[in-house]
Design brief:
Number of domains: 1
Distance between the termini: 40 Å
Strand content: 15-25%
Number of helices: 10
Organism: Nitrosospira multiformis
Largest sheet: 7 strands, mixed
CATH superfamily: LmbE-like
CATH class: Alpha Beta
InterPro entries: LmbE-like_dom_sf
Helix content: 40-55%
Shape: globular
CATH topology: Rossmann fold
Strand order of the largest sheet: 3-2-1-4-5-9-8
Radius of gyration: 18 Å
Protein name: GlcNAc-PI de-N-acetylase
Length: 301
C-alpha cells in the first residue's frame, strides 16, 4: 500500500465520529497517534487493577484528556476480579447491559467508526471487548437500516480492531495466541488501515509508554520492555487498524479446537497457587459470546 493511500485512509478515519472501546487502561498507548488525530470518544471496561488490585485508570484518563479525547459513559466501572468472577460464575447480565449501553451510545452520538481490542486469545477480557463491540455495532446497523430503508440511504457503522500482542508492525491481519506455544496465527482477509506518526509524534508516544509502564510496574512494564527489546522503537511509528471479521470468519473460531493462551497460563498459575480457578474458553467465554450473538438475531427477527 502506498504512503499516499495510507494517509488518505487515516484522514478518513480521523474525520468520522469515532469511538474507542478498550478492555484495560494502557491499551490506548497502541493508538497514541490516532487518538491525537481523531480525538475519539473513549470507553474503558475495567479500572486496570489486575491481580494486584492497583488501578491505573487515572493515568490513562490523563493521557486521553491530554490528547483531546472525550471520556465516555462506560469508564472503568469494574475491577478485573469482578469481570473474571462474572465469567466463572456464568452471570451474563453485566455483559448484556454493557453491550446495550454501547449500542445506545453509538446511536445517540451518531458514531461512524468504532475501534476496539482484538480477539487474540491472550486475555479473555480483551476477547470479550471485541465481541461486545461487534455485537453493539451489528445491533446499531440493523436498527439504523430499518429506520433508513424508506429513504434508500445506507450509513453503516464501521468496526475496526487493534492488535495488542506481538510485533506492532504486522505483515498480516491480527494474530491469535494459541496455548502452550503462544505461537501467533494470522487472521487473513481483513482490510488494513495504517496511521503514520512523524518523528515528534513517535517521540511523545515512546516517552509516554515508558512513563506509563514505569508507574504501572508488574506485567505491563515487562510487556513494554519486552516489546522495545524485541522489535525496536521504530516499530511503533505506525499504528494499525483492521476491519472486524465477517460472519463465519470470527477469530474465536480458532479456539473451538485448540485452547487459547490464557487457559494454559491460568493452569500454570493455579498450579503455582496464584489463582484458584482457570477461565476456560468453552466453559466460560464462549457461552457469553453465544448469548451476545442472540441479541443480533433478536433485532433481525
Amino acid at each position: 500500500m502506498s504512503d499516499a493511500r495510507r494517509n488518505n485512509l487515516s484522514d478518513n478515519l480521523s474525520e468520522t465520529r469515532s469511538l474507542l472501546v478498550i478492555a484495560h487502561p494502557g491499551h490506548e498507548l497502541r493508538l497514541y497517534g490516532w487518538i491525537g488525530q481523531a480525538k475519539p470518544l473513549v470507553c474503558i471496561l475495567t479500572d486496570g487493577s489486575g491481580s494486584d488490585d492497583k488501578p491505573r485508570l487515572a493515568s490513562t484518563l490523563n493521557i486521553l484528556q491530554g490528547l483531546g479525547a472525550e471520556i465516555g459513559s462506560v469508564c472503568g466501572e469494574f475491577t478485573d476480579r469482578q469481570i473474571y468472577q462474572k465469567m466463572l460464575q456464568g452471570e451474563y447480565d453485566m455483559f448484556d447491559a454493557l453491550c446495550e449501553r454501547l449500542a445506545a451510545l453509538i446511536a445517540a452520538r451518531d458514531i461512524r467508526t468504532v475501534v476496539s481490542d482484538a480477539i487474540e486469545g491472550y486475555n479473555p477480557t480483551h476477547d470479550l471487548c471485541e465481541v461486545l463491540v461487534r455485537t453493539a455495532v451489528a445491533i446499531t446497523n440493523d436498527v439504523a437500516n430499518i429506520v433508513r430503508a424508506a429513504d434508500g440511504k445506507e450509513s453503516l457503522v464501521r468496526h475496526y480492531t487493534i492488535p495488542l500482542m506481538g510485533d506492532p508492525r504486522p505483515t498480516a491481519p491480527p494474530t491469535v495466541c494459541r496455548a502452550e506455544t503462544k505461537n501467533p496465527v494470522s487472521q487473513q482477509g481483513c482490510e488494513q488501515h495504517v496511521i503514520e506518526l512523524n518523528e515528534r509524534e513517535l517521540a511523545h508516544k515512546l516517552e509516554t509508554m515508558r512513563e506509563y509502564a514505569s508507574r504501572a510496574g508488574g506485567i505491563l512494564q515487562q510487556e513494554v520492555e519486552d516489546a522495545f527489546r524485541s522489535y525496536g522503537e521504530d516499530a511503533f511509528a505506525r499504528e494499525y487498524l483492521f476491519s472486524s471479521a465477517s460472519p463465519g470468519k470470527e477469530p474465536e473460531r480458532n479456539f473451538l479446537q485448540q485452547k487459547p493462551f490464557y487457559e494454559s497460563r491460568g493452569e500454570q498459575r493455579v498450579a503455582d497457587g496464584r489463582y484458584r480457578d482457570v477461565i476456560r474458553f468453552h466453559e466460560h467465554v464462549l457461552p457469553i459470546m453465544n448469548r451476545l450473538s442472540t441479541k443480533i438475531s433478536a433485532v433481525r427477527i
